[in-house]
Amino acid sequence: MSKLTIALLQISPCSSLKENLTKGINACLAAKLGGADIALFPEMYSNGYDIYDRKFDDWKQEAITLNDDFVLTFQELSKQLNMAIGLTLLEKISYSQYPQNTLVLFDRKGRRVLTYAKVHTCDFDVERYLSSGEDFYVCDLDTDCGTVKVGAMICYDREFPESARILMLKGAELILVPNACPMEINRISQLRARAFENMLAVATCNYPINVPDCNGHSTIFDGVVYKKNENESRDTCILQAPESEGIYLATIDLDELREYRNNEIHGNAYRKPDKYQLLVKKI
After folding, report:
1. Could you give phi then psi for residue 250, rounded to 5 degrees?
2. Does the pLDDT of residue 142 top 90, yes or no?
3. Best CA proximity match to 224, nearest among 265, 196, 194, 189
4. 259 catalytic per annotation
5. Distances (CA, A) of 237 to 146, 152, 230
6. What's the 3-state SS for 161-223?
7. What is d(CA 236, CA 51) in angstroms, rounded to the nearest whole number?
8. What is the pLDDT of residue 108?
9. N or C end of the chain: which has fewer CB within 10 A?
10. Helix 161-169 crosses helix 185-198 at what angle (to 10 degrees)?
């Protein structure tokens, strides 16, 4: 059986990049001890999403490139641990004065297989000073249980059904979602809906309650609404973490998910894209 274990690193950031590095390494070590195939950080972990109530000229100095030692250390660690790591950072980019809110995914051999910058930046607030990403991407992630099709959204991306829909159409079986906001019933319901309507798994990692404007409640939805020989639909949430800091793990049955995707009616089964032209028009 193909079973994939995901660790959500629901940890609070420290006061410096160096301290975040040390704490992040220890969290990854704990995830590996727990049997994780993938470890996922919360949003913009490199500086702890510390961009509120500060001048842009101050926090933009905390942006780092993908060649920074902070990033390269986790790349090497993924190889040492034989475990994929979804690392998040405030990324310095060469073509703009505005940094990006970025996730990089390293596979268990230390290869960078996915780089995603947040498309739906919160332009109504301080994230207007971020450069938004250009597209949604899906990669082939090599794991102990074989290749898994993985995509990513970041926080506010969750509120746009098109984000997950595009990833599904590109073949995603699992969406990784770094997060930094209060996860209450409606936001959690959005994640449940994204998993349901696209027949895929969604893993979201948030900061714990001691981080301002966050409250834990990281989640994993496995996407399988109907099981064989069961007449009723089921709760696809296989993990909802408490508010407190910790490493939280859950396991997805990929064989079951793939069989479900092949036989059920959601996702791309009965779409009518020729009716959706309005969705791509600017109004």
Report:
1. -150, 160
2. yes
3. 196
4. no
5. 23, 18, 17
6. HHHHHHHHHCCCCEEEEECCCCCCHHHHHHHHHHHHHHCCEEEEECCCCCCCCCCCCCEEECC
7. 34
8. 98
9. C
10. 30
- The average pLDDT across 225-230 equals 88
43 catalytic per annotation: yes
Going by pLDDT thresholds of 50, 70 and 90, the confidence category of residue 228 is confident
The tokens for 117 are: 């910058």
User: Cα–Cα distances in Å, from 275 out to 199, 279, 280?
Assistant: 21, 9, 11
Read off the pTM. Answer: 0.97
Annotated catalytic residue within 32, 91, 118, 173? 118
- Mark whether 155 is an active-site residue: yes
The proportion of the chain whose per-residue pLDDT surpasses 70, expressed as a percent, equals: 100
Q: 191-221: b or e for each residue (b if 16 or more CB lie within 10 Å)?
A: bbebbbbbbbbbbbbbbbbebeebbbbbbbb
What pLDDT score was predicted for residue 229? 82
Q: Which two tokens stand for residue 9?
A: 């690193």
Q: By the 8 A CB rule, do 83 and 28 touch?
A: yes
C-alpha angle 197/108/13, rounded to 5°?
A: 75
- Tell me the one-letter amino acid at 194: R
pLDDT, average across residues 209-236: 94
Which residue of the set 28, 155, 205, 214 is catalytic? 155
Q: How far apart are CA 224 and CA 242, in angstroms?
A: 23
E strand or H helix that includes residue 239: strand 237-240
Catalytic residue among 32, 43, 91, 127: 43
User: What are the tokens at 268?
Assistant: 């791309």
Alpha carbon 61 to chain centroid, angstroms: 25
